[in-house]
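Quick sanity check, Peptidyl-tRNA hydrolase:
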Amino acid sequence: MNEHFLVVGLGNPGPAYAGNRHNAGFMVLDVLAARAGGRFKAHRSRCDVLEGRLAGARAVLAKPRGYMNESGGPVKALRDFYKAPVERLIVVHDELDIPYGAVRLKRGGGDNGHNGLRSITRALGDKNYPRVRFGVGRPPGRMDAAAFVLKDFSAAERKELELNVERAADAVEALMTEGLEAAQNTFHAS
């Protein structure tokens, strides 16, 4: 049995997208990379990858290099390369239907209109991977959801962003070490 956890953060490449709500997954992965004491390197799976230890467990942290809606191919290639079962693949992503700053964990379910999740589920042929969902809230007024997630966090949101990203990174580690139910009990309570 493969002992690695594959932790994939979703986002879009390049500096123009770096502060976008849609890049919350990348932000969390950057915190986890700092905790693991390593740097991302290009991998043949079309992901930037860091192999290391996180919360005492072997982990492969990965950020797909393509755009969000094309995440499935690189994630499947990564999973195939490391021969990881789907239950050890943790996907970290932004979530519109959760209030800003809240962190929720679940296994499986639909994609809720999230193109990155849709692409991954289609490529894997399986939706039962664990997810760490970073709440970005709903768009104001009649703003299109797609436009909202491609905007940077607001000045008010940025005041709490670092703390919220750290909390989501804590949730990933709790999921790895304690399992889904215990991690949900911790992070859904607050």
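Posting the structure with no commentary besides this: The longest strand covers residues 47-54.
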